[in-house]
Specification:
The chain has 16 helices and 41 strands. A hairpin with a 4-residue loop joins strand 17 and strand 18. The chain is α/β, with parallel strands linked by helices and 659 residues long. InterPro entries: 5'-Nucleotdase_C, 5'-Nucleotdase_C_sf, 5'-Nucleotdase_CS, 5_nucleotidase/apyrase, Calcineurin-like_PHP, CpdB_N, Metallo-depent_PP-like, TAT_signal.
Length: 659
């Protein structure tokens, strides 16, 4: 096992080693100003690491500067050097989330005595405690228990239990509900004093739905706030000076709701909890994403006046809470506090990324073998595709690269909805082409040849780390959703020749194709919405002949649409996708679902089913630009009357479509 230089809780180090060499670090002002009865304690948080250790995107098979515990570890060393005393916590979701996690779960395995690479890396960095997140259960109970058995730190969770008792304190826990860390604090006079830091962990109870196949009949989940109210007094009775909640749960509803998924606000109101470390939402706190919420100070980083952080995801940020503690003769209490985030990279206005730290070599070395094995894994075929997957014509016809995403979402959501009240509703799937030229240039297209398909090819099919969502909509909202998508096209004059088809201000990722229904787009009509989703003409109707199983869709019909968290939460301003229609918040990314679908099918048939077309406009032609390689596939576009029309601007090739 490779470890960094020993870094005790009690220290006044002023040198921090980084990959760039030793750097002089000034102590935090809480450390320099602490009096004889005061001590500075620095708490650090990582959350939602999802097996991101190396700064590497295994999907695209290339290094990146925006992820990786090896990068976050550079900040951890600096933070320890800036404080007299420090503790490091992880807030869960560490075992699953990228191909390294899948490699360990599906290929190498986790038997008793095996070491998981994320645990190896966390041991090397020197964590003091961690909680379980919902994704820890994705591979089953044996997997998570075998994995955390190798941890040099306690892994806790209070609300996931093997057997329910009359109240939480009488439950039979799956793992230790909480831990009391006994440490020595160095005060402002340089004297050491004992302190007892209570740490308790929580996970969203929705894990019982998300991983029903692994957990049903084996464990149960309690409400987060209910569990906290029961256990915190016990921790106080055991002498905890301060209590830190490792809450793998986001900042959501203000009031407590039984079974709440994002329960950090009511949790912070529980008497006796001093610090709340949050996560699960893959957001950053303090930060503007949480501005304007009652009880939350998004600038200072407090919830109900108590210090809190959410350290991004994949190692993107280190959450830091500084506590100035005072001893009142019996216990330590918090006199002052500050919250901040330390990012590992900066995104520039030109979309480039500047790394702010370099990777710590000892972290990379701790999992170098597993990293190399993962590279071999992602470069191997996980299935085959019977036809090429390309997006050159995704904006003008039903498309194989979009079709396979829609198919995978349908397959996944249908399984997730079994046994729920929504199982019998018509299930549809919305997917958009992400790589479709435009301002990104003539090479910016998906292009995966027929034959073996590797995990890294999934990056060509799905660019973003979205998670799966399902929404319940009416027939009227379904039509409105498609009207919003149809804003991709300029209005075409019937009988006109060689009119420009696409609106250049409309991004391709907002051109949702919805599978499970059939429809046509009448380009002679005005768009109902502008490119940003603003309603222009409520009576405008481009979507015609909308049908489900051959029958016209009525406004009062109900449907479930499989989509992603961006769209379901209101991204793109789509009717029916406004955040309040969500019926399923799945724990898996769309990328992971596609990989699993391909592996399950063995050989996929991505042939588009042509469920949508343009309405006929006799004597009318339009022009459409695509990438140069589109010419190799134009003969396959049997649903279109299309022909090459010479060169387009800026390296594109032009096509003419007869409507």
């Amino acid at each position: 096992m490779i470890h960094p230089p020993k870094c005790d809780l009690n220290r006044r180090a002023i040198l921090a080693g980084t990959s760039a060499g030793a750097t002089l670090i000034a102590l935090h002002h809480f450390s320099t100003r602490a009096a004889a009865n005061q001590a500075h304690l620095r708490l650090m948080e990582t959350t939602d690491l999802h097996v991101h250790i190396y700064p590497y995107d295994y999907y695209s098979d290339r290094p990146v500067d925006t992820v990786g515990l090896a990068r976050t570890a550079a900040h951890i060393g600096e933070i320890r050097a800036e404080a007299t005393n420090s503790l490091l916590f992880d807030n869960g979701d560490f075992l699953q989330g990228n191909p390294m996690g899948d490699y360990i779960a599906y290929e190498r395995g986790m038997n008793v005595g095996d070491m998981h690479p994320i645990i190896q890396a966390m041991n090397a960095v020197g964590f003091d405690a961690s909680t379980l997140g919902n994704h820890e259960f994705n591979y089953g109970l044996d997997f998570v228990l075998n994995s955390i058995a190798g941890a040099d730190f306690p892994v806790i969770s209070a609300n996931i239990v093997c057997r329910l008792g009359a109240e939480p304190t009488e439950d039979t826990p799956l793992v230790t509900p909480y831990v009391i860390l006994e440490r020595m604090l160095t005060d402002g006079a340089g004297l050491a004093h004992p302190i007892r830091v209570g740490v308790i962990g929580f996970v969203p109870p929705q894990v019982m739905t998300w991983d029903r196949r692994h957990l049903e009949g084996k464990v149960a989940a309690r409400d987060i706030v209910e569990t906290a109210r029961a256990w915190v007094p016990v921790m106080k009775d055991e002498g905890a000076d301060i209590i830190v909640a490792l809450n793998h749960s986001g900042i959501g509803e203000i009031a407590h709701v039984d079974g709440q998924e994002n329960a950090s606000i009511p949790l912070a109101a529980v008497d006796g909890i001093d610090v709340v470390m949050t996560g699960h939402q893959h957001l950053s706190f303090p930060g503007p994403a949480f501005a304007g919420i009652a009880g939350v100070d998004a600038k200072k980083g407090t919830i109900h006046g108590k210090p809190a952080v959410m350290g991004g995801f994949w190692g993107s940020h280190l959450g830091v809470i500084d506590l100035l503690l005072e001893y009142d003769g019996a216990r330590w209490r918090i006199a002052r506090h500050e919250s901040e985030l330390r990012p590992i990279s900066r995104r520039n206005e030109d979309r480039t990324v500047t790394p702010l730290v370099e990777s710590e070599r000892y972290v990379l070395d701790s999992v170098e073998k597993e990293h190399k094995e993962t590279l071999s894994y992602i470069r191997r075929a996980v299935g085959r595709t019977s036809a090429p997957l390309y997006s050159y014509f995704a904006l003008v016809a039903d498309d194989p690269s979009v079709q396979i995403v829609a198919n995978a979402q349908l397959w996944y959501v249908a399984e997730m909805l079994k046994g729920t009240p929504y199982e019998g509703l018509p299930l549809l799937s919305a997917a958009a082409p992400f790589k479709a030229g435009g301002r990104s240039g003539p090479e910016y297209y998906t292009d995966v040849p027929a034959g073996d398909i590797a995990i890294k090819h999934v990056a060509d099919l799905y660019l973003y780390p979205n998670t799966v969502r399902a929404v319940r909509v009416t027939g009227a909202e379904l039509k409105g959703w498609l009207e919003r998508s149809a804003g991709m096209f300029n209005r075409i004059v019937p009988g006109g020749r060689d009119q420009v088809l696409l609106n250049p201000d409309f991004p391709s990722y907002n051109f949702d194709v919805i599978d499970g229904v059939t429809y046509r787009i009448d380009l002679s009509q005005p768009s109902r919405f502008d490119p940003k989703g603003k309603l222009l003409d409520p009576s405008a109707t481009r979507i015609v002949e909308l049908a489900w199983r051959g029958k016209p869709v009525a406004d009062d019909m109900e449907f479930v649409i499989a989509t992603n968290n961006y769209r379901a939460g209101g991204g793109g301003e789509f009717p029916g996708a406004t955040g309040d229609t969500i019926i399923l918040q799945a724990p898996d990314t769309n990328r992971d679902v596609i990989v699993r679908y391909i592996a399950e099918q063995g050989t996929i048939d991505p042939t588009a089913d042509n469920n949508w077309r343009f309405a006929p406009m006799p004597g009318t032609t339009v022009l459409f630009d695509s990438g140069p390689r589109a010419i190799e596939y134009v003969d396959q576009m049997t649903a279109l009357d299309i022909e090459p029309a010479g060169d387009g601007p800026d390296g594109f090739i032009r096509f003419r479509i007869r409507l």
